[in-house]
């Protein structure tokens, strides 16, 4: 592995890497826009995956489709010897968030209603752009190193990466780099909730609700009692834990028939895997109690799960250094005008929430990101969502960027995010963050001491808290 280059040589190499990002940016922008135009949901990203497959082959990567037995997952690899740097991409969309591109009023498109309201069209394209530029940089410099691009399906609740981790496809990677579209340019704090998505199925006995109600055993009653029990549990669980539920099958629409079967879906979240497993056990016992009270039977089926993120301070500091060298995204006057118009569709609470999620002071005057946010590992304590990047972080040292691709204050999972997904503003932000990711990968390849610190930090964390995958081995 090479020794660190002198500072001047390192900067020259990094600047050349940024030139390579710019050189390949038109293809990445075209890929992002093409994926935006064919929004597909969890595990059904057939066209989006095919677009990424073609882009990888055109860039000279060796492509392995269908990794981890997932038809819409793929791996592109290039290089030789040396450290292996993995870039994680996504391309799944969300239901109900269809929107006309660039429109500053709500204008859903005709069709199935899907839309890229979380910006994953940008996410996959920028990660692939970073991988492509790093591949070209390695070829120019002659340095040993391997580049991988992982096309990862079903982040939106399907936990595609957790399935990929279980299949062992990240073996051999020295570090994983990814990002997420948003309002700011920064290293994303390694904070997320471990989550478990599980269905509780109650089975009883139907009966005529008027003539012979005593013969019935209501599965709906059991589900209702379970929900009441879980609502009482909320007072006695850790403050950061979350419990959400929705009926998948309420037992039919005929009130004069005692419901014989009911299914209620639960999403359970906690700050770490240990607390999540404990919370899941308590919820299950409440479900068992509800079944006992109603003389029904209960079974549960795990649908998906995600681990919490495991941070890596040396890796985060290396990415922060690249952000600071590069500076904020070079947004144009037209970008700022578009962002101002889009921001007018948001209320003050939506805007403030985006700042507060990252523990940042609210700036009502900021239409687009005009600075690089300082790295504070604990900054995102208020931002408690879940991501399957967490599962990768337990098996490979992982770092995430946040890229400024939307008007400041734009909430994720909104029509406004979809509307901005193929704008010039979004393109500028995704190319900017691709430069940061590519430069971080290059620093890991050329700086043996940094890579060793990254590995040692990860090893210490895993030794203290061994990974217990929440993904059941038999889950298809």
Question: Would you mind describing this structure in some detail?
Answer:
The protein is an alpha/beta fold and 476 residues long. 41% of the residues lie in helices and 17% in strands. It is built from 13 helices and eleven strands. The strands form two sheets. The chain has a seven-stranded mixed sheet, with helices on both faces. Strands 8-9-7-10 form a four-stranded antiparallel sheet. Strand 3, helix 3 and strand 4 form a beta-alpha-beta unit. Helix 1 packs antiparallel against helix 2, helix 1 packs antiparallel against helix 3 and helix 3 packs across helix 12. The longest helix is centred in the N-terminal third of the chain and has 30 residues. The chain starts with 6 loop residues before the first helix and ends in a 12-residue tail after the last helix.
What's the gist of this structure?
By secondary structure, the protein is of the alpha/beta class. The chain has helices spanning 7-36, 46-58, 120-141, 160-166, 219-233, 273-294, 313-326, 333-343, 348-357, 389-395, 415-419, 424-446, 448-464, and strands spanning 62-65, 74-80, 84-90, 145-152, 175-182, 186-187, 194-203, 242-249, 261-270, 297-306, 398-404.
């Amino acid at each position: 592995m090479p020794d660190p280059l002198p500072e001047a040589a390192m900067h020259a190499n990094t600047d050349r890497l940024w030139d390579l990002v710019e050189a390949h940016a038109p293809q990445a922008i075209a890929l992002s826009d093409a994926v935006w135009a064919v929004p597909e949901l969890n595990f059904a990203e057939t066209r989006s995956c095919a677009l990424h497959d073609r882009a990888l082959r055109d860039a000279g990567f060796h492509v392995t489709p269908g990794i981890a037995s997932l038809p819409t997952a793929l791996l592109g690899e290039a290089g030789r010897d040396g450290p292996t740097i993995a870039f994680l991409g996504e391309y799944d969309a969300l239901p109900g968030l269809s929107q006309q591109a660039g429109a500053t009023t709500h204008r859903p498109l005709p069709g199935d209603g899907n839309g890229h309201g979380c910006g994953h069209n940008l996410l996959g394209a920028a990660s692939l752009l970073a991988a492509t530029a790093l591949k070209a940089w390695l070829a120019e410099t002659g340095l040993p190193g391997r580049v991988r691009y992982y096309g990862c399906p079903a982040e939106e609740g399907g936990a595609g990466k957790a399935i990929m981790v279980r299949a062992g496809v990240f073996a051999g990677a020295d570090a994983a780099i990814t990002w997420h579209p948003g309002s700011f340019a920064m290293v994303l704090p390694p904070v997320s909730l471990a989550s478990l998505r599980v269905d509780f199925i109650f089975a009883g006995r139907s009966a005529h609700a008027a003539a012979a109600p005593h013969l019935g055993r209501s599965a709906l009653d059991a589900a209702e009692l379970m929900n009441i029990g879980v609502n009482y549990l909320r007072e006695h669980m850790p403050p950061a834990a979350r419990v959400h539920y929705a009926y998948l099958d309420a037992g039919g629409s005929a009130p004069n028939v005692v419901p014989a079967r009911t299914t209620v879906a639960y999403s359970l979240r906690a700050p770490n895997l240990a607390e999540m497993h404990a919370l899941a056990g308590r919820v299950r016992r409440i479900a068992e109690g509800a079944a006992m009270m109603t003389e029904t039977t209960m079974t549960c089926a795990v649908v998906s799960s995600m681990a919490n993120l495991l941070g890596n301070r040396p890796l985060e500091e290396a990415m922060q250094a690249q952000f600071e060298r590069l500076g904020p995204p070079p947004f144009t006057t037209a970008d700022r005008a578009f962002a101002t118009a889009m921001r007018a569709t948001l209320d003050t609470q939506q805007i403030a929430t985006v700042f507060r999620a990252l523990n940042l002071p609210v700036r009502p005057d900021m239409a687009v990101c005009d600075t690089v946010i300082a790295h504070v590992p604990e900054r995102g304590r208020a931002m408690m969502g879940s991501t399957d990047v967490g599962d990768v972080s337990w098996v490979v040292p992982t770092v995430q960027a946040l890229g400024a691709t939307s008007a400041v204050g734009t909430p994720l999972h909104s029509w406004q995010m979809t509307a901005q997904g193929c704008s010039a503003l979004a393109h500028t932000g995704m190319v900017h963050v691709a430069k940061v990711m590519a430069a971080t990968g290059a620093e890991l390849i050329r700086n043996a001491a940094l890579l060793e610190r990254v590995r040692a930090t990860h090893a210490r964390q895993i030794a203290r808290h061994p990974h217990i995958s929440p993904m059941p081995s038999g889950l298809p």
